[in-house]
Structures are given as C-alpha cells and as structure tokens.
Amino acid sequence: MPRTKPDPSLKSRDSRSKLLRRHNPYWQVMEKGRALGYRKGEKGGNWLAKYYDPLADPTRLQVKLGAADDNSDPDGKMVLSFSQAQEAAREWFKVAFHKATGERIRTGPYTVANAVDDYLEDRKKHGVKTATRMRWDFDARVISALGDIQASKLTKRRIEVWLEEVATSPARHRGKEGKAPETEDELRARKASANRIWKNLKAALNLAVRERKVQSDAGWKEVKPFKGTHAPRIRFLNVAEQQRLVNACPTPDFRCLIQAGLFTGARESELTRLRACDFDETSGAVFIEFSKSGKQRYITLTAEGLDFFRERVAGLQADAPIFPRISYDRTDKRNLGGWSRAELSRMMAKVCTDAEVEPMVFHELRHTYASGLVNEGLPLIFVAQQLGHRDTRMVEDHYGHLCQSAKADAVRKLAPVLGIFQSAGVTSLKIAEGG
User: What's the pLDDT at 422?
Assistant: First the structure.
C-alpha cells in the first residue's frame, strides 16, 4: 500500500474541525498536477480529487471521492479517512490519465494480453477497419493460450507450439468450433489462418518493443510462419456465368448490388456505404471513402459500368444511398434500408442455385472482377489500385497464374522487331513409328 502523505491540517477530525467552512476546497498536492481536496460543509466535509495536464484534452478533471469521516467512522467506500481518501485519489488519477490522454496506466507485468489491447487501440486510432475482426481472432486463439504470459518471457519454442495448435485446431464458423482439418486443402487453409493470426500478434509484440513496454523481441524474432500456404483456390466466373447470376436475382435491389460488384470489384461493405455523391461522372469513377485498410481510392469504371452508375444515381440526392435495401427481409421482418451479412449469404446461396452456378459468396465477385482485368493484360499495379491494395503482392499471389497468356500476347504484340534473323524456312521432320 502506498505511504500516506502527511498534511497536519487534513489528517484528522480534530485538525479539520479547526478549518473555516468555505466553498473552495483545501488542497493537498500529492504529485505534480494531482491533488486531494477537502471541502468543509455545515454538517461535515467531502473528499475531492483533481487532475491537471496542460498538454492533455481535457486539461482539467475533478471528482468527488466520498464523505470525510468527520461525523462517522470510515468504511472505505462511502466514508473515507484521510489515508483512504489518498488511496482512492491515486486510483482515480489512473482513470483521469486515461480520459485525458487515451493511454492506460498498468501495474504488474506487461502480458501478451496487454500488448494485444494496446495494438488494437493503436489500429483503431489509425482508422484500420479490421480491428474488430482482429479482436475476434485474438480472443479465440491468442488470449486463452498466451494472454497471461509475460511478453518479455515468450520463447521461440512456446510460440511454435502455439502455432501448431492453431494450425491443427478446428475452424470456427460463426463463433462455433467446426471439425478438425482433414484434407490437404483444409490443412493448408488452417496453416494460412495461423500465419495470419501470428502476423497480427507479432505486430502487437513489435509495437510493445517500439513503445519500450517490452525490452527486446528476442523471444519471437526467429519464429517462422508455415510455408506453402499461398495457394488458395480462387473462384471466378466466366462471362456466361456472370450473366446467369445477374438474371437469376429475385429482386431489383439485389440485382443492382450484384451488378455493382461485377463492375467494380468492391467489397459488399464498400458498396452498401456508397452515396450518390461518390459517383464522379466526369472522371468516370466511383470514390470509396471507407475501405478495409482505411485507405481511400477511386475505382475507374468501364463504359458499361459508367452507364450503370449514371442510371443508378439519376434523381438521387447527393447523400442518398446508391444501393439501399428495398425488398422485404423474410427473417428480420423489418426493412432497415441496409443489407446484413446473413441476408447477403442467404440471397447468394439462392441465386447461385437458380443460376446453376457452383455456390459462392459475394466476395468472390471481387475475384471475378480482378481475374477479368488480369486476363485482359491490365498491368498488375493498376489491378492493385482498383482493388485498393498497397502494392501488387496480393494480386500476384492470387491471380499471377492468369498473367501467362496475357503476357505472351503482349510480348508478341509490343516487343520490337530486331531484324537480326532471317528464317531459312527449315522445319523439323517427324520420324515415323518403326522407321
């Protein structure tokens, strides 16, 4: 317990009884910018605490801690002695510091769970939209296994054991455990998930090192992710399948959402946030203000896509949604004007069945869009910009194999003719069997 800082005028009932009754409290400075106060009233006094930091926002905070033990014995909660008031003030100073600066004061060892909390706060501060998804992954796979371990005591072996446990554990579907991975593709997918979670955890631990909350990264610097996990099966539709999918849509509003996904490659969350003012007819592009990475971008439209969006925004107010939910929701019984993830999944399943297309989720329209651009020979950096990626790595991983035919056509069409060889018309002879 911290020592009680002495103050002859406040330490006892007798000394406080000699003070004059006034509205302004009697203050005892405990540390710079932090003080304990006593306000004397007609029937007894009250303890107060105040916090001041000229660089914070707000700069001043004040709170009533409880009644002084002028007329009653202290109970440590509602009625406080001088020493209890100091202890309560010190606890409140931690709360005030967090309110004023956004940072937390922690006591005890700095654990993996602390590093995760700090990392998620940092991600939210920087506008990263995936912080909530990260929290789900951390809670499900990290906190229960590693959360209580002191970050500075993590070892390479302990993390590798944890990674193996995650890679062999059942996948989670809507918060519930599924079956353990069995097939080669299922094992690859679980290893890829383990790598993704480890990448985020390592980023959290490295942030703790940069902020000097952990002394060194020696415990995890040498941990390697699983290899051979970047070969996912990417689904994409050919033109005929895209047409059947659009024609099978049961409602006009869902058909428009599907069309927009095929014209832009945007995520469903990006499309449902679009407002009429986000369509720029002059430049022929759609502005995505809020994306998964927090990065804004413009998606250049094809001539067909431009006609589609021009017709969609005709007559709309600038802040009106381009793709509102209009049709009846059979499960919710309400029309809130938006699309839920569950409703989109149900609609996609039905449309795929009716269109005689292998079942797929809405996000695979994004793969269809990207593969179409790659197949037509669009430079990968342009494809990455359309999708909102920072560089071409993701595009190369997912669609690089589609570049070969487009590359061959481009090389034969665009490479210069050197004129340094003249064919003599010689052809190879086929050797007859048995000759």
Answer: 73
CATH number for the domain that contains residue 183: 1.10.150
- Expressed in angstroms, the distance from the first to the final Cα of the chain is 101
Q: What is the pLDDT of residues 8-39, one digit of tens each?
A: 899 899 999 999 988 899 999 999 999 999 99
Domain assignment of residue 255, yes or no: yes
Decide: 129 and 293 in contact? Cβ < 8 Å. yes
Query: Is 73 found in the same domain as 19?
Result: yes
Looking at 56-70, 317-331, 340-354, 388-402, which range is the least confident one? 388-402
Quick one: tokens of 197? 């979670």
Are 263 and 398 contained in the same domain? Answer: yes
On the CB side of 149, CA atoms within 13 Å amount to 15
Dump pLDDT digits (tens) for 315-365: 899 999 999 888 765 555 555 667 777 788 888 999 999 999 888 888 889
DSSP-derived pairing of the beta strands 79-80 and 60-68: parallel
Could you list the residue range(s) of the whole structural domain that residue 155 is in? 112-210
Same domain, 260 and 195: no
* pLDDT bucket at 217, cuts 50 / 70 / 90: very high
234 φ/ψ angles, rounded to the nearest 5 degrees: -90, 120
CA distance readout (Å), 90 to 70, 93, 183, 192, 394: 21, 5, 57, 46, 50
In order of 10, 63, 78, the CA distances from 69 in angstroms are 11, 18, 9
Residue 393 sits in a domain of what CATH number? 1.10.443.10
